[in-house]
Design brief:
Elements (H helix, E strand, L loop, with lengths): L4 H12 L5 H8 L3 H13 L19 E9 L4 H13 L3 E6 L6 E7 L2 H14 L2 E8 L5 E2 L2 E2 L1
Antiparallel strand pairs: 1-3, 1-4, 2-3, 5-6
Helix pairs in contact: 2-3
Length: about 150
């Protein structure tokens, strides 16, 4: 899909505030509301807009502990990697997962209610898969998240 400067402006504005109406977008972008609506729909259908989400405070769901977990697998056999990815996708506490270069194969962001829950998650990762190494860091403060200053 080809994007122009108007599409980039629409994407940037929606990333900052996904609740903008077509009228508000049109005022900010300089296009008519109907043009903004057509462009937004095209960006959604083109998979450039993947969804709209509410940004919640950690205490909203009583999950105030954020942990960054680096995982190194013992084996990169296709079946074992697929099993690990399925596990990651089924674990509700894991919000984000990235396959990475460097010492870790995967970098995970998890949100849990307490240290016991974090310990249980790390134990599930260790005991259900062939893991060579796990490094867990607890987040002390959110400085910038999802491109937004905390």
């Amino acid at each position: 899909m080809q994007v122009d400067e108007f599409d980039v402006k629409i994407l940037t504005l929606l990333q900052e505030n996904g609740r903008l109406t077509n009228q508000e977008l049109s005022d900010l972008v300089g296009l008519s509301p109907s043009q903004c609506s057509r462009r937004r729909i095209a960006l959604e259908q083109g998979q450039l807009i993947l969804g709209y989400h509410a940004r919640l405070a950690p205490r909203a769901l009583q999950q105030e502990i954020v942990a960054m977990i680096e995982v190194k697998l013992q084996s990169h056999e296709q079946q074992k990697v697929a099993s690990f990815v399925d596990f990651i996708q089924s674990e509700t506490p894991i919000l984000d997962a990235y396959k990475t270069t460097g010492e870790a194969d995967y970098s995970l962001k998890a949100v849990v209610s307490d240290l016991d829950s974090l310990n249980a998650l790390v134990n599930r990762i260790f005991t259900t898969h062939a893991i060579a190494h796990i490094k867990t860091s607890v987040v002390l403060d959110r400085v910038k998240e999802n491109g937004i200053n905390a």
